[in-house]
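haha ok so turns out i had the wrong file open the whole time. this is the CORRECT one, sorry everyone. sequence first:
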Amino acid sequence: MTKKIVLTSAMDGLGGTENATFRLGRLLKARGHDIILASSDGPLIKEAKELGIRWFPIDFYQGGKAGYIKAMFAYMKMLRQEKPDVVHCQMARIVPACAVAAKIASPKTKVFYHARGLDPQTYPKIAKLFDKLGVYIIGNCKHEQQKLIRHGFPAERVTYTYNALHKVDYVPEKTQKDYVMLGTLSRLDTVRAVHLMLDIFKKMIDRGLPVRLNIAGIGEEMENLKAQAERLQIDDKVTFLGGVRDLTGYFKEVDILVNTPHCIGDHGAGVGNNILESGLYDTPVVTYDMAGISEMVINGQTGFCIPFGDEEQFIGAVEQLVHNPALRQQIGKALHEHVARLCSDDEIYRTTMAAYDM
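then structure:
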């Protein structure tokens, strides 16, 4: 049975939430559902519209409290007109406005929050508020689902599904070179903590490892990271690529994805699109453990998942992969198989529709 589904988010950039929202919309549209995107404008809107996804320019993040209320009334008008089966909120801040708007304008519409991580102190508040609002929750990994239950959200109204995947044109052969290219692929902010990777990379260089580093992404830490690379005197071996849309080209050059998020305890959620994309391109991952990453990166099997802050173990894992091309290939393919099984279009579609039927 086809559904009318409203995906609601901020779509300003090319970050994980924007890409996950777009990919989910594309998948649901391809399966015959009527998809509406209610969001701010951004680089993916044109592509979404070309797929036949209808767009309502509603921005909950501009204009402070007055802008939030204005957006809620615009949302209410849209709901009264469209009467969707499902509202699927991709960010926590917009959920109260969307839930209230639905109760008033379209009472039969089910409202979902897609949990992609919150500040740790926010979970108890969200669990209580969203329960009272009658919202359903989809975690972006099993770890996130269990966290929400632990903080008091009803187990019968929360499930999980992984992010819909990037469409891969083909898996390229790695470029042959006399060094090993490490790569980061994330927003450049303090939580993704690429600055920790630069410190680790400096130690690798000092130990004579034949490595270079590509840093992909944009964000507020860009200039600080460039200054750090210069200060550590490794800037001749570090390249800042900016925002990357061509993942095939990126992973053709990158031999090992390295990931050092500063997320401990209840901070952060999910697996990260960078991990899933590495798997799709047969690229091994060395990462600090956080949230649901270990659901994909099984230590020693589909990658190396290192306790946060253990630099020596992190360097040791990279060194092992640097000196063993066959192991890089083996682990990259193992990650690919694991990601493809858990995050195939069929599996994401099945788990998403099961969530809507909770």
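The first strand starts at residue 4 and ends at 9.
again sry for the mixup
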